[in-house]
User: Fold this.
Amino acid sequence: MTRTIVHMMRHGEVYNPEGILYGRLPGFGLSTTGSKQAAMVSDALADHDITAVFASPLQRAQETATPIAARHALSIVTDDGLLEAENVFEGLRVSVGDGALRRPRHWTKLHDPFTPSWGEPYIQIAHRMLAVATRARDAARGHEAVCVSHQLPVYTLRRFLEGKRLWHDPRRRQCSLASLTSLLYDGDALVDIVYSEPAGASDPLATGA
Assistant:
């Protein structure tokens, strides 16, 4: 059978001095650290057989994908299926004990953590991410592909593929900045998932997420 690897990558650290939940808002690019993280992953993948690079249309994902695509002389395929999850708290501060979550008028939006009630359903995220992974697998069949996305979508896809419940504690996500969640295929069959951190570990609740 044909072996193909699809690396689902989280973008690097974002410049976000106000500490808001930026979600799908435009204008949030990588910080200096984030650019270094993207370069580190590009270096780590330099000798890999990368033949396709996909990325979310959001600036931080495009900037993370750029050095990887350039290293392999590839164009970036922009795919909306890799977008950050929709969230009703977008544009607000939502740190624990801070901002929007302290206001009673927002509490009704938190009544269902299983769907969740404050944003895009986990199952919808998993399905659109799986569709991109399949497109990337087919585009790079027999080689490797990189898909740059965001923390929640990447981790939700992993949980879905591992047969775990999709709702979870965000403080325990194994999806550091610029990390790789690599899907290993034998033909069309997924045979393994390998997680790695070429740019080092980071706090899952970091502001630059």
